[in-house]
Amino acid sequence: GRTAGDEDDAVAAWRELGGAVALKRVGVRHKAASGGLVLNVSDEQAVRTAYRRLGGTVLVERMAEPGTELLVAVRRDGIVPVLVLGLGGVHAELLDRTVIVPLPVTRERVAQALDELGTDANDPLATLAIRLTELPLALIELNPVIVRAHQAVAVDALADQEVSEP
């Protein structure tokens, strides 16, 4: 996807991407909760309507294939740095099902945490979670990560400052 600064640019981005798109307001932390997200937009009039509703600069992205939506986050802004795995997507706060794993993690512990959520662990998802813990950020949240049989795709992310050295 790419950003668009006006209605005509959003339509041009939709045409470039082909198929259904998501429009996301840029600079908003919790897009779904704040009304900054429009999904499955698939015709020119719908793109124009969505852009007018969101306004400003928007990100126009091709829709991801459907799958299980999870939240994968690393937080180093508390007493103990942790990996957070949970049911994600637009209902993350409503569902409030998470497993918190102190860092560092192992592939086995990630698989166990996913099992605790009632979600099948797959290698791409475990790899994504482990690699996320290697980034030097105080907070990084991927929500949702859409998980399919052999694929894990992060479709939105939030990151906050690098961890300062003691």
Kindly describe this structure.
Helix 1 packs across helix 2 (44-54). The protein has helices at 7-17, 44-54, 92-95, 107-116, 123-133; strands at residues 2-4, 21-25, 37-41, 58-62, 68-75, 82-87, 98-102, 137-148, 151-154, 157-162. The radius of gyration is 17 Å and the shape is elongated. The chain contains five helices and ten strands; from the N terminus they run E-H-E-E-H-E-E-E-H-E-H-H-E-E-E. The longest helix is centred in the N-terminal third of the chain and has 11 residues, at 7-17. Strands 5, 6, 7, 8, 9 and 10 form a six-stranded antiparallel β-sheet that branches. A four-stranded antiparallel β-sheet has the order 1-4-2-3, with helices on one face. The model has no long low-confidence stretch (mean pLDDT 90). Helices cover 28% and strands 36% of the residues. With 166 residues, it is α+β, with helices and mostly antiparallel strands.
Key structural traits:
alpha+beta; 5 helices; 166 residues; 10 strands; single chain
Topology summary:
Blueprint: E1 2-4, H1 7-17, E2 21-25, E3 37-41, H2 44-54, E4 58-62, E5 68-75, E6 82-87, H3 92-95, E7 98-102, H4 107-116, H5 123-133, E8 137-148, E9 151-154, E10 157-162
Antiparallel strand pairs: 1-4, 2-3, 2-4, 5-6, 5-8, 6-7, 8-9, 8-10
Helix pairs in contact: 1-2
Look at the helices and sheets and give the structural class: alpha+beta
* Uncertain parts: none
User: What is the helical fraction, as a range of percent?
Assistant: 25-40%
- Overall shape: elongated
Compact description:
The chain contains five helices and ten strands; from the N terminus they run E-H-E-E-H-E-E-E-H-E-H-H-E-E-E.
